[in-house]
Amino acid sequence: MSRKNVVLKAIAEVLGRKSTAYTDLASAIENNDNLSLILCQQALESLPIETKSALWSRVRDLEEALSNDASLAETDDVKDIA
Fold it and tell me: What does the alpha-carbon distance between residue 51 and residue 61 come to, in Å, rounded to a whole number?
């Protein structure tokens, strides 16, 4: 999962799928539109501190979970080879 998709998932969980940030980022990712990504980033930066903290905390949690899953997959691959 790309970092953009991790952030999108976190936005969905913290702000909701109906939030402007979610729809804007989803559209920017789908259209591979860098200008929209920049505008979305600016919108996220203008969120209240508590919301930003919750959002970036969730992003870190998701990234950590993904890296742990990748580590587990690599371990399983090594076991399969052995």
Answer: 15
Chunked into runs of 10 residues, the chain (82 residues) has average pLDDT values of: 86 91 89 87 90 94 88 51 46
| Six-digit token string for 50 | 């508590």
Give the closest residue to 44 by CA, choosing from 33, 34, 54.
Answer: 54
Cα separation, 75 vs 28, whole angstroms: 35
Query: Rounded to whole angstroms, how far apart are CA atoms 10 and 55?
Result: 6
pLDDT score for 71 = 65
Which of 3, 64, 60 lies closest to 29 in space, CA to CA? 3
Residue type, 39: L
